[in-house]
Amino acid sequence: MKGSSTIKSILIIVILLLVGVLGVLGVNTAKTYLSGASADTEPKNVLAKPSEEGKSATISWVSDKPTTGVVEYGTTPASLLLRAPESDSTSSHAVTLSPLKANTNYYFRIRIGEEVFDNNGIPYSFKTKAAEVEVVPTVAVVPTVVSSNTGGCQTGVDYDKNGTINSLDMLSCVRNGASATPANEKCPVDVDYDKNGVVNSLDRIKCLQATKL
Known about the structure:
CATH class of the largest domain: Mainly Beta
CATH topology of the largest domain: Immunoglobulin-like
Shape: rod-shaped
Oligomer: single chain
Order of helices and strands: HEEEEEEEEHH
Structural class: alpha+beta
């Protein structure tokens, strides 16, 4: 009888231990279920990829089972106040953070349910790229060549249309792109005939007078 009582006592103790263990496991399972976190939801292979223009970045990771995560981020580890949630439940995650400042350090963590995941107690981090400088192409200016009047600038013509024919008419003709020296005349307009250091219409008049043209 004594041996039988000992066996019963051992069985009762074993049963109580099993009930206790199962109870603890049950509570933990319930907590895990309610929080939405488990080893299957833990982010793996977390990667931050800044864009080339420096205005955005893509945060990617994978999980063993589909979840819906939220990326919490900011410019300091203590102020992750910006949020970028996923729209669908998936096991291959990619969240775009935008707009961001160029050439700036950013910090982030991933929240799934009530569970927060980071880099061993500190936020993940990345730095955006410097903004690209837009290069404006230089357009070469091609000078415009004004064709000369085939007949040249003739004396005795009121080129400036002021009712008076004088040396100013010749200047007006030259400014309008015509040749100041007709083909049959011998007095080019670019010669200082009066030797006063200034080339103007008086030089040509002097030349005409000298050659009796």
